[in-house]
Amino acid sequence: MAEEITRTRPAEFIEAAGKVYTDKLFGTSARPGVLGRPVDTSQFAPSVAGLSALQKSAMQQQATQAGLGNISYDPTTGLASSVDDTGSGIGAFQPFLDESQRLAGVDPTTGQVTGAGVTSAMDPYMSPYQQQVIDATTASYQNQRAQGRQSIMDQAVAAGAFGGGREGVQRGVYDAQTTLGATQLEADLRAQNFAQAQAAAQAGMQNQQGLATLAPQLANQQSTNVMQLGNTQQALRQSQLDAQAAANREAAYEEQQRIGFAGQQFAPLMGGIGASTQYSTSQATPPSTLQTILGTGTGIAGIAGAAMKGFG
User: Fold this and answer.
1) Strand ranges (DSSP E) for 108-254?
2) What pLDDT is recorded for position 215?
3) CA quadruple 258, 264, 266, 267: dihedral positive or negative?
4) Which helix or strand (DSSP H or E) is residue 71 part of?
């Protein structure tokens, strides 16, 4: 008695669709399927935006303020790699501090306050009209002195003692006192001028010290503003890189998503079990190759189940 074998096959349209599906998944002799083609993950690998031109400019401003040279950047990492020796080696505040020390009378060679240093510091602040003031004041004083001598002579004449010894003593005492007064007057005028110059130099020294503080502050504020603009530019560039990586990821897994979706639709029709996990990609966490295989594997189970029934 001949043995009769009965095979149960799915409908032709389902079988044809399954053939297309398995060819896409496993491939043919002419073209490998999805499972045989590796995904180029470098197209959506995480990347970090490098320093913007504005950020580099702000960093160079800071380096220049510190007396450093030009900054060089590593072409691979984008980070600062070295600073050359073209800088002055002097911070932006140093010239103001040097001028402040000069106004204090400090000798730059010894670092000590000296008389010559004080004199040199005071000279620019001395009144240019000092001698004229002294001459005019002395002339006025000498005129008053002459009037005083005349008064002594007039008193002697009135007393009938003109030319006498008493008159001579009075004039001698008067001349000595007024000569000393003239000398003292000139000394006072010079001391007053020096005191005024010293006060002006002290004010100048304080101004220089204030500038030594203000100049770096202004420079830092300027570089901070530039850096903020650079940060904004870098953040925008990073957003562009992230968006491009997400687009590349979607493009790389687009075919696998379609095949996974098709497998979920075919599985119930073929008599297999339905997919327990829906295949999808995530912008935050890219799917791994293993997840891809597992995602399409549920579709394979349905087709394989139907095939086994057909050969049973």
Assistant:
1) none
2) 85
3) positive
4) strand 71-73
